[in-house]
Design brief:
The structure holds two protein chains of two kinds. By secondary structure, chain A is of the alpha/beta class. Chain A has helices at 9-17, 22-30, 63-72, 86-91, 121-126, 129-143, 154-159, 163-174, 191-205, 231-242, 256-260, 273-287, 299-313, 316-344, 357-367, 382-386, 398-401, 421-429, 456-466, 475-483, 502-517, 528-531, 535-542, and strands at 32-34, 78-83, 115-116, 147-152, 177-181, 218-225, 244-251, 267-270, 291-293, 348-352, 371-376, 449-451, 470-473, 488-490. Helices cover 44% and strands 12% of the residues of chain A. In chain A, strand 10, helix 15 (357-367) and strand 11 (371-376) form a beta-alpha-beta unit. In chain A, helix 3 (63-72) crosses helix 9, helix 10 (231-242) runs antiparallel to helix 21 (502-517) and helix 14 packs parallel to helix 21 (502-517). Chain B has helices spanning 5-8, 21-29, 43-57, 70-75, 78-92, 103-108, 112-122, 143-158, 178-189, 223-227, 248-256, 269-283, 289-309, 320-333, 349-355, 372-378, 394-400, 424-446, and strands spanning 13-14, 35-40, 63-65, 96-101, 130-134, 169-172, 195-197, 234-237, 259-262, 313-317, 336-341, 365-367, 386-389, 404-406. In chain B, helix 17 links the parallel strand 13 and strand 14 (404-406). The chains are: A alpha/beta, B alpha/beta.
Chain lengths: 543, 454
């Protein structure tokens, strides 16, 4: 299977585009590029974060999904009420396999609940504010949570319910934090708008609420980690072994209390750049906490991230400890990786997922000798593909302009730059650059395909043309891909698997990929009697 | 003892026991050959419904969307509608496009009839597919209503009367599994070669591997067959918790004089008997011997298992029609239904349970328009021995340390949701065996002795 004839990527793209009407083809052509990495990591421009063509089956979800499902979904001690008819709450009811570990049995854990105002006809006509206020009251009466948040769905925006006013008055009445997200599904072009809205409201209503300074020598926040399949537990354990104090995670295995203390950390690590970079930026502007890009998917990236954190704090004790942990972990990892590498060498993968995952997981495939033929994001922006260096040149279109950009000023009391500009420059020169993400494309080989917002048709064609050994996407794509005899690994929810983060997670992933790409089931797809295509037999059938 | 949400004056839904209306439409449209669904509204609805259906059926399911953005929400969906329909035709060459409206387009008030008309007038596409529109605002009704309305909308759009009367039968199944549908087709075809049976998603949602890419999976009832439903001798509706205004059977009766037999979901002996009786009456044929044999084996097993299950207490939950069917089965086998719960709100749950049961259900708490927390609170003191319903009941089963026999939709914490059987003698047999074994397994697990001989 690993012997593949050379495929001309240009011809492949032309073939895919040929089915579209001219206007659609022109639009899609800009979202499909052949990678070429030049000097200073220069890569071709790709169009991203633009509307999906109606009637084309996209992998994308909506603004509400990005806000409620992704960013707020994994926080266990807040009650999230979906304001709208029942569907949206039902479909986002713990479907992302976020895990959480309350510290004790008494601790609040509301993630197994799906709260909704279950709007009816009458509320659509006469307004749903009264019902929302009563729902907040009821949720409070039953559970006495620390905080309640409200998420608007499509009809709410249209009928004009002022959820923020309702939240404000309920906050005063109940004496707990109550705040809302105007994350109606039609906003923006994908989940991405919802991430931004979630970031804004967390920054406005949560971060900085707790003035108690936490203990800890090296205080760190992990941003953009959502604890799918237990990833956060692995990362937490690694950081702890190194002696790094994790103040908060946005938002895997998190609590609202931990988020309130985020501004006490001295360094932010951004994992999923797309979904959380706004919070990182705003915390820096208001409190002076700098951020670096970190990534705990893949052994190399994990080591690099740990080293960067150690270098930032610059304490020899921490640097030594990090090196010790890395050495211990790599000792366990190398024999497994090398054995699996022998069986997977030269096989090929495609990754179409998320806003960071399509990038991060390529390293895991590289480690076992597998090549990425094509990759793309569902809801990313150009900076996630080409790197933040293109940020000044990104044109803001009407869909993005509708999402609020918060104006953040340094806090008169709490603003405290953790490093001087000179120190930061020095660190950057030494390999710890701040506010930097170089994007996915510079890490991909030349002549590979990069496709934004890939759809069903394109997926089918890519599979037909390239016949990859594995295709990574989500559950919507999974079974269509597997109909073709190609295994699909879900990188949203990890199927039933995980954790895949850190060294322990990498071992899990290697084993899983080995099992998938070397499975024998595909040879049984055709029954023995169907394989016989002798002319006599066919003639008999046709007779 | 019926408790409705009005009486409880509850404003927050905690863990709903129902899905949204467009979901039902998407499921029903999968039961027609060459059909493709387009949700007119935000793309999130199509994505959410796809990912949810797929987690149960584990099959590729394509649902298109007209991808509203903020300006579409303000200015209306006409432009997106036309583009979406054209792109669906181009990619899928469907025989039928099912258009279901979401909350968004319903709230704006897009006039779909007009949009379809304009599209047909303006388009350059030749050989247009059938276009069926169903109105499914999810603030009005549940997925069951969406499912029934869609059957009605398909019938209303496609069915014609040729003036030629036949002894054909129309059968509209409820929301059951592909395995159920496959078996129902087997039963119906043993009475008459000619029949109309839809929605039949047996193959579209539970199919084999492919040699080549299929934009639309094979399977479903053929459009030509559906057209002929007005000539049939009778219609059987295998559901009963619905309003006449959502009923395709009633529509065919009013429009074409096709007698409607509303049987309900044929779970258990009596309800399957009623189904078979209706088939006999409409087609004039007799039940085949194999069906009698299946019935015989089922009755025999009821007798044999009586010692394990008599007097046990069950809580049944899920879609109203399935709840009615399962409570009917329980009353036949000596298990007491202590609570019957659904998020549905047809207003028929109680009367249908009473109609299909003997006195054993008299003391049951019957709760429609309820969610899982209402159910948890209500059954606290009832000490049930088992739960029967979908995967969403697992949390409660875990808390109560009692078995959950998985039925209906969604089943996403077990493998093979598409192959769980419920209806007819054979399906009841499967369900019955699973119920009995759940009780035996619990007893074996909790017992002190570790006996292998139960």
């Amino acid at each position: 299977m690993s012997e593949k004839k050379e495929i001309d990527p240009k011809a492949a793209l032309d073939e895919i585009l040929s089915k579209y009407p001219p206007k659609v083809a022109r639009k899609r052509a800009k979202q499909m590029v052949i990678n070429e990495v030049g000097e200073n990591e220069q890569v071709p421009q790709i169009t991203a974060n633009v509307r999906t063509v109606p009637g084309i089956i996209t992998m994308r979800g909506c603004c509400y999904a990005g806000c409620k499902g992704v960013v707020l979904g994994p926080t266990r001690d807040i009650i999230n009420i979906t304001h709208g008819p029942i569907g949206c709450a039902y479909y986002s009811w713990l479907t992302r396999r976020n895990q959480t570990k309350p510290k004790s049995e008494e601790d609040d854990q509301f993630m197994t609940y799906a709260f909704s105002t279950d709007m009816e006809d009458s509320e659509i006509i006469f307004g749903g504010e009264k019902k929302l206020a009563q729902a907040i009251q009821e949720a409070y009466d039953i559970f006495q949570p620390k905080a309640i948040s409200v998420f608007s769905t499509c009809p709410v925006g249209l009928i004009g319910d002022d959820i923020h006013q309702v939240c404000k008055s309920m906050k005063e009445k109940l004496g707990i934090n109550v705040f809302g997200f105007s994350c109606e599904g039609y906003k923006g072009v994908s989940q991405s708008a919802g991430h931004h809205i979630a970031n804004n409201q967390l920054f406005k209503h949560v971060i900085g609420n707790n003035e108690d300074k936490p203990e800890g020598k090296y205080k760190f926040n992990l941003l953009g980690e959502y604890n799918i399949g237990g990833d956060a537990f692995v990362i937490e354990e690694l950081l702890e072994r190194c002696g790094i104090t994790l103040i908060s995670t946005f938002s895997g295995n998190s609590t609202i209390t931990s988020m309130e203390m985020a501004h006490h950390a001295d360094l932010n690590g951004v994992m999923c750049h797309r979904s959380i970079n706004y919070v990182a930026e705003m915390i820096e502007q208001k409190y002076g906490v700098p951020w670096i890009k970190t990534n705990f998917i893949g052994p190399e990236s994990t080591s690099k991230s740990l080293r960067k954190i150690a270098q930032f704090f610059g304490d020899q004790e921490l640097i030594d400890k990090v090196e010790q942990v890395i050495a211990e972990e790599m000792d366990k990892l190398i024999p497994v990786r090398d054995a699996i590498r022998e069986r997977c060498l030269g096989k090929t993968a495609m990754l179409f997922v998320g806003g960071s995952r399509a990038h991060h997981y390529q390293e895991l495939f590289n480690s076992i000798g597998m090549n990425t033929l094509a990759a793309g994001y569902e809801f990313a922006h150009r900076d996630d593909y080409e790197g933040r260096k293109v940020l000044p040149s990104i044109k803001v279109d009407a869909d993005s302009r509708n999402i609020e950009e918060l104006e953040v000023e340094p806090d008169p009391v709490l603003y405290n730059p953790r490093k001087s500009p000179e120190e930061m420059e020095k660190l950057a020169a030494a390999g710890v650059p701040f506010k930097e993400y170089q994007g996915m494309m510079p890490d991909m080989k030349n002549e590979t395909l990069v496709i934004d917002d890939a759809n069903e048709w394109e997926t089918e064609k890519l599979i037909e043309i390239y016949k990859p050994d594995i295709y990574c996407a989500g559950i919507k794509e999974k079974y269509g891909i597997q109909k073709h005899g190609i295994p699909c690994k879900q990188l949203h929810s990890y199927d039933y698997g995980g954790p895949y983060a850190g060294y322990e997670g990498a071992i899990n992933f290697f084993k899983e990929i080995d099992r998938l790409v070397n499975a024998n089931i595909w040879r049984h797809v055709k029954a023995p009697w169907m394989k016989d295509t002798s002319p006599t037999l066919e003639a008999t059938y046709n007779a | 003892m019926t408790m409705t949400q009005e009486e409880k004056e509850k404003d927050v839904s905690r863990n709903a026991c129902k899905l949204c209306t467009p979901f039902g439409a998407c499921l029903a449209f999968k039961g027609v050959t060459g059909s493709m669904t387009l949700l007119h509204g935000s793309q999130g609805c199509a994505t959410y419904i796809r990912r949810y259906m797929i987690s149960h059926f584990r099959e590729p399911i394509d649902i298109a969307s007209s991808n509203f953005t903020e300006d579409t929400a303000i200015f209306g969906g006409q432009k997106n509608f036309g583009t979406a329909v054209e792109n669906v035709i181009r990619q899928y060459s469907p025989a039928l496009i099912g258009i279901a409206t979401t909350c968004l387009s319903e709230t704006i008030g897009d006039d779909i009839k007009m949009l379809v008309h304009m599209f047909k007038k303006d388009t350059e596409v030749e050989n247009l597919p059938e276009i069926v529109h169903v109105s499914t605002p999810s603030y009005n009704g549940t997925h069951s209503d969406g499912y029934y309305s869609t059957i009605r909308a398909i019938s209303d759009t496609l069915v014609e009367k040729t003036g030629f009367c036949t002894d054909n039968v129309n059968v509209f199944p409820g929301m059951v599994s592909p395995a159920d549908l496959r078996y129902l087709r087997e039963i119906i075809s043993s009475f008459n070669d000619n029949y109309v049976f839809f929605p039949d998603y047996a193959d579209t949602l539970d199919g084999p591997s492919w040699d080549e890419y299929r934009p639309i999976p094979e399977g479903g009832e053929k459009i030509e067959n559906i057209r002929s439903a007005g000539d049939s001798a009778g219609t059987i509706e295998l559901f009963s918790c619905l309003d006449d205004k959502n009923s395709a059977g009633k529509l065919l009766e009013d429009k074409f004089g096709v007698a409607n037999y509303r049987i309900g979901m044929p779970i258990g002996i009596r309800k399957t008997d009623a189904f078979i009786d209706a088939l006999e009456r409409i087609t004039g044929s007799h039940a085949p011997a194999w069906l009698s044999a299946e019935r015989g084996r089922l009755v025999d097993s009821y007798i044999d298992a009586h010692k394990y299950i008599f007097g046990k207490k069950a809580v049944v939950f899920g879609d109203e029609d399935m709840v009615v069917g399962i409570t009917s089965l329980l009353s036949e086998i000596g298990i007491t239904t202590v609570a019957a719960v659904s998020g549905g709100k047809s207003g028929k749950l109680e009367s249908e349970i009473k109609r299909n049961n003997d006195a054993s259900c008299d003391k049951a708490m019957i709760m429609d328009n309820s969610d899982f927390e209402d159910m948890a609170e209500a059954i606290e003191k009832l000490k049930p021995d088992l739960l029967i319903g979908n995967s969403k009941g697992y949390m409660l089963a875990r808390k109560l340390k009692i078995p959950l026999v998985r039925t209906g939709f969604p089943v996403h914490d077990r493998f093979g949701g598409a192959r769980i059987q419920h209806v007819g003698y054979r399906g009841t047999q499967q369900l019955f065996d699973r119920i009995v074994n759940a009780i035996i397994e619990k007893r074996q697990k909790d017992g002190d002795w570790g006996y292998t001989y139960m």
